[in-house]
Structure formats: C-alpha cells, structure tokens
Amino acid sequence: MKRPRLEHCSACPPDLMPELKSLNVIIVTQPFFLYTMGEQFLKEVETRQLNWLFPLKSFIKNSVKTAISSDSPLLPASPFKGIYTAIARKESSGKTIAPEESVSTLDALRMYTSVPACATFDEKSKGTITPGKVADLAVLSDDPTKSEPDKIMDIEVVKTIIGGKIMWEI
After folding, report:
1. What is the per-residue DSSP string for 66-103?
2. Which of 17, 18, 40, 141 has the most CB atoms around its CB within 10 Å?
3. What is the pLDDT of residue 109?
4. pTM for the whole thing?
5. Are the C-beta atoms of 32 and 7 separated by less than 8 Å?
6. Do 169 and 157 meet the contact criterion of CB atoms below 8 Å apart?
7. Alpha carbons within 13 A on the beta-carbon side of 102
8. Residue 39 in contact with residue 32, Cβ under 8 Å?
9. Digits of tens for pLDDT over the chain (170 positions)?
10. Residue 106 near residue 87 (C-beta atoms within 8 A)
11. Which of 30, 127, 39 is closest to 79 using CA atoms?
C-alpha cells in the first residue's frame, strides 16, 4: 500500500487542493514557520498569496490529511509552538496571517497525533489513546483545549509514558 507524503507544502494555492485530495497525499507541514518567519512573509509575499501559506483549514475542508511537525533542528522541537501557530496564525510580533486558515485546538492536536501515526503506517498501534495501543503519551501542565491560544506555547510536559511505563517526569 502506498501512502504518498508531501513534506512542507508551506505554500499551496487553492487550485492544487483537488489534486492533493485525488492523490490521497498526506501533507507534513510546519506552521511554526509563520511565527518565526512571518515578518518576512508579510514583506515578501503578495497579499493574495498569504492565504496560501500553511493553509491548514483548507486542507481539512478539502479532506487532505495533514500532519504537523517541528522541522527540528531548524525550528524548536516543541509541538506546542506548532499547535499555537496553527490556531493563532500569528507571527512573532503579533500580526495575524490568514486567520481564515486557523484550525481548532482539537484539529491541531490530531495533526500532531493521529495523522502522523497514519503517515507512518502506525495508526493501529499509535496516535490515539485507545485500548490495545502502545500507550506512548505525555502528561501536560495544562489542557490545551481549555487554554487561551496565547498560553499554549507555555504548556510543558510533566510526564512521559512509553509503552505504558513512566520514562520521565518532573
């Protein structure tokens, strides 16, 4: 079984969405680049094309599976930075870029958990907290689904469980 992936896909015009869907491509992208390079994007990208940058909501609307990653070591490995940017769509000075492409916290969490498991053929053993799966998970300092978007980058991992065993905790 083939599961084609398109890495980055940082700029995606709307007319490509039907083709991505028809090919059943899984996008693996890094919205935190909006935060770190947003000022440059605002200066150099045509206004009408800003909506094409990390168009997460459009991917969802067009049924294009999308995973978020950090692109570490180029960017910090913290998933909370990517989740924040997927939700808030803000660059580092606070300017919003294409807010209509914002996704919900739950959608951003899925893009960091169940979709990457699917992208690596691990959906039967990883990606959700479901009986029979390997129980790799992190316990967080706050609930991202109840946090204000601007507080999500402050969330910390307080315990890591791998294979059902505590491997690290504060």
Report:
1. EEE---TTTS---HHHHHHHHHH-B-TTS-B--GGG--
2. 17
3. 98
4. 0.94
5. no
6. no
7. 14
8. no
9. 789 999 999 999 999 999 999 999 999 999 999 999 999 999 999 999 999 999 999 999 999 999 999 999 988 899 999 999 999 999 999 999 999 999 999 999 999 999 999 999 999 999 999 999 998 999 999 999 999 999 999 999 999 999 999 999 99
10. no
11. 30
Which residues 6+ apart lie within 8 Å of 86 measured at CB? 31, 54, 56, 68, 102, 103, 107, 108, 111
CATH class of 5-126: alpha beta
* Coarse DSSP helix, strand, coil percentages of the chain, rounded to the nearest 5 percent: 40, 15, 45
In this structure, what DSSP letter does residue 119 have?
H
125: tokens are 């053993």
